[in-house]
Please model this.
Amino acid sequence: MVQTQLMGRGIKNDRILSAFREIPRDMFVPDDFKLHSYADFPLSIACGQTISQPYIIAFMIQIVDVTDQDKVLEIGTGSGYQTAILSMLAKEVYSVERIQELSLGAKRVLKKLDINNVHFRVGDGTRGWEKAYPKCEEFDKIIVSAGSPSIPESLLQQLADNGKLIIPSGTQEMQALEMITRKGDQYIKESFGKCTFVPLIGEQGW
Model:
């Protein structure tokens, strides 16, 4: 997986490659799909959601350049696989999931892996970490793992100066992968091609 799907497609960050080698993706995949755990396509998980293909996870993390000093806000815990990858790269990860069953399942797997720098929240991901514990008002990086009709204002407000937010934005059928970099009061947008994610459900999403 690392050699063909990641390195072979332009993922060059050694820390990202090391994290993908260390985190066993099969632990996050339902039994019916175990044989495809390391395949280069999304897989179904519980509650009608998906675990993204390894490449797109690595690509998004490489674009925003997660460092070991970053506080990262993840919108869409899902299976917890990306959460686990981020935990190897960031100082702290704050992960929001609207479906309690998924959040609890991810928490159990990360506990088995002895990962201790992740904070979980069940709630509206479009609102980010508002009024959640432990308190954190801004993040160096924000990664949204669901497609939104636009970029939620609450997430922009929680982005630290010089921070980066990456989000699929567009219709429910097709989105553009967009990165927002905050420079003071300015938000600079870059686009990285088309993609398709499950819908971001919430007050500022679908």
